[in-house]
Design goal:
The complex is a heterodimer of chains A (428) and B (154). With 428 residues, chain A is of the alpha/beta class. Chain A is 42% helix and 11% strand. In chain A, α2 packs across α9 and α15 packs across α16. Chain A starts with 20 loop residues before the first helix and ends in an 8-residue tail after the last helix. Chain B has 154 residues and is an alpha+beta fold. Chain B is built from seven helices and five strands. Chain B has a five-stranded mixed sheet with strand order 2-3-1-4-5, with helices on one face. The longest helix of chain B has 12 residues. The two termini of chain B are 30 Å apart. The chains are: A alpha/beta (428), B alpha+beta (154). The interface between A and B is large, with 54 and 41 residues.
């Protein structure tokens, strides 16, 4: 059998019903889980570590390392948990929806392989409230998985048992934060937790917990089935596997594609998305959701992997890029973005709670033509103090990524708003 | 007072859960499915059922965007204000909604037909600008298409 090159999307036919359990099995589904059950859990962890799967939720932490830090053996605290982070709310990101709507069993199989590798007792899929189709399809797939004993007591005759539960959120951006998601599952406000302790040691109800993104987990059973060497060979770089890349904005074919990890920005923007729409000129893009720094023309031949993006001072984030054209006012765009971040701040720590609304109000004033020259210093100082390690979690530092880079790349546009006392993009 | 159906549904949700409080948001969503929103009386009853103080449960209720602590219209419009929608025409869409319905974000029409709320990215970025009405998503919208979409919600 020839080895597949696009493992994540091989069964996905947009606009059609996803494969049910039998169709999924016919395509080789649950072979990865069957094989994992014949291996020692530590071996499964080791293969995932060797495959070098970087976390696809945005942070890029190697999944294998996360799993390897979970306490194992009879002395380990129980129950242990796997939390599938399906709270896809990063602005500009629509990749996990494709996986859950298009091939829900793949997400479940990946989560089960992870659960076996850390010998977890319960898997929670934490799904965002608005993904109704994903909810419906995951529910059906979970029922099918139980009926065929891929989940439940003594999975496929092995000594290992696992519960599989779907939690639909009541909606808040903070639920996607890696410790906020745990508080949300415990029925609390989704505020972040202090680290240490690490979630792997003390997570849900103080028990060992692995939190992984949907796309990250969708890879792992393929690694077990086809081997880590194969998985590494799919990529153009040291970071293993393929990646779901997305493009939205005024391009010819907005969408999501599975490509080798490390495909360049230009190949995705021009090859996959067909370039800019007629009459629209490229000005910049956010490479992986709203919490990543702007790239401009000079960066288009950079590879879209975590290390390459880091090298040019940006971030891969979720890998779903948002394209800004010449008809869009950068100040207005930033005002919209920072208003979002200010609204979604959980209010737990002061710099974020007080700083983000100040940033949003300042941008509102500049956009409306009421800005003063000293407002640029206000923005610069917020970038300085809200970045780095001055806040409890990554929400505010993430909010500063697009602002900091825009203040550099599009500074003249900000200054023009202030000197002309109006938005040059507004007609009339 | 919670209805028998509400109480049974909440108890069924809580039975297999690790702790009773972990189903707090699920319980509030059950009440909301029955009544459209969560009133003070229902909140107190749910709190008692889960062994929480009303203030503690209200701190959870008010944290989540999807729990309504005030009455909403027959249909709730969630207008996506993510950056992709912003670039692709969020503002004209919002202006059309506000002028047609005569309400701003966070408000309900006088006839109780629509409530208009902002929402974080709906994950429909390839179909921007987009919005959701009740459980249905609508993408690739223009102000003109929006008029037709609204006709389907009486």
């Amino acid at each position: 059998m020839p080895l597949i090159e696009r493992p994540l999307t091989q069964n996905i036919r947009p606009g059609q019903e996803p494969p049910d359990l039998r169709a999924y099995e016919r395509a080789g589904g649950y072979e990865g889980l069957r094989k994992a059950l014949t291996l020692d859990p530590k071996t499964v962890q080791d293969w995932v570590t060797r495959a070098n799967v970087m976390g696809r939720g945005g942070a890029g932490f190697p999944a294998g390392h996360k799993w390897a830090s979970v306490p194992m053996g009879p002395e380990a605290a129980r129950p242990k948990y796997v939390v599938v982070n399906a709270d896809e709310m990063e602005p500009g990101t629509m990749k996990d929806r494709l996986l859950m709507e298009g091939d829900p069993h793949q997400v479940i199989e990946g989560a089960l392989v992870c659960a076996y590798a850390i010998q977890a007792d319960v898997v929670y899929i934490f799904l965002r409230n608005e993904y109704k189709l994903s909810e419906q399809r995951l529910c059906k797939a979970i029922a099918e998985a139980y009926a065929s004993n891929y989940a439940g007591p003594k999975v496929l005759g092995s000594p290992w048992s696992v519960e599989l539960r779907l939690h639909t959120s009541a909606g808040r951006y903070m639920c996607g934060e890696k410790s906020g998601i745990l508080n949300a599952l415990e029925g609390k406000r989704a505020i972040p937790r202090a680290k240490p302790p690490r979630t792997a040691v003390s997570g849900l109800w103080g028990k060992p917990t692995v939190v992984n993104n949907v796309e990250t987990l969708a890879n792992v059973h393929h690694i077990i089935r086809h081997g880590w060497e194969w998985f590494r060979s799919l990529s153009h770089t040291e970071e293993g596997g393929t990646k779901l890349y997305g493009v939205s904005g005024p391009v010819n074919r907005p969408g999501v594609w599975e490509m080798p990890m490390g495909t360049t920005v230009r190949e995705i923007l021009e090859g996959c998305a067909g370039g800019m729409r007629p009459g629209h000129t490229f000005r910049g893009l956010l490479p992986g959701g709203a919490s990543t720094p702007f790239l401009t023309e000079e960066h288009l031949d950079t590879r879209m992997d975590f290390a390459s993006m880091h090298q040019i001072g940006s971030q891969l984030g979720t890998g779903t890029m948002i394209v800004m054209d010449d008809k869009t006012c950068p100040v207005g765009l930033l005002y919209g973005l920072e208003t979002f971040f200010a609204r979604e701040s959980c209010g737990w720590c002061t710099p974020c709670r007080e700083g983000l609304p100040w940033v949003a109000r300042t941008l509102e004033a500049i956009e409306a033509g009421h800005g003063k020259p000293e407002d640029m210093e206000v923005l610069d100082s917020h970038v300085k103090f809200l970045s780095g390690h001055n806040t409890f979690c990554e929400l505010a530092p993430g909010a500063m990524m697009p602002l900091k880079s825009a203040l550099k790349a599009f500074r003249a546009d900000f200054e023009r708003h202030i000197s002309e006392k109006r938005c040059p993009w507004r007609t009339g | 007072m919670l209805s028998v159906a509400e109480r049974l549904e909440i108890e069924a949700e809580a039975a297999p859960a690790e702790t009773k409080r972990s189903v707090a948001s699920d319980a509030l969503k059950i009440v909301q499915r029955h009544r459209g929103w969560v009133c003070d009386e229902a909140l107190k009853d749910v709190a008692a059922l889960l062994g929480l103080s009303p203030a503690e449960l209200d701190s959870v209720a008010t944290f989540y965007n999807g729990i309504y602590r005030r009455p909403v219209g027959r249909h709730v419009i969630l207008l996506c204000d993510s950056v992709s929608c912003w670039i692709m025409g969020y503002n004209p869409l919002r202006e059309r909604l506000e002028s047609r319905l005569g309400i701003g974000l966070g408000q309900t029409t006088a006839d109780g037909r629509f409530t208009l709320l902002p929402t974080a990215c709906l994950g429909l970025c390839e179909q921007a600008p987009a919005l959701m009405i009740d459980d249905n998503v609508h993408g690739d919208l223009t102000p003109e298409k929006l008029d037709q979409v609204l006709e389907n919600y009486a």
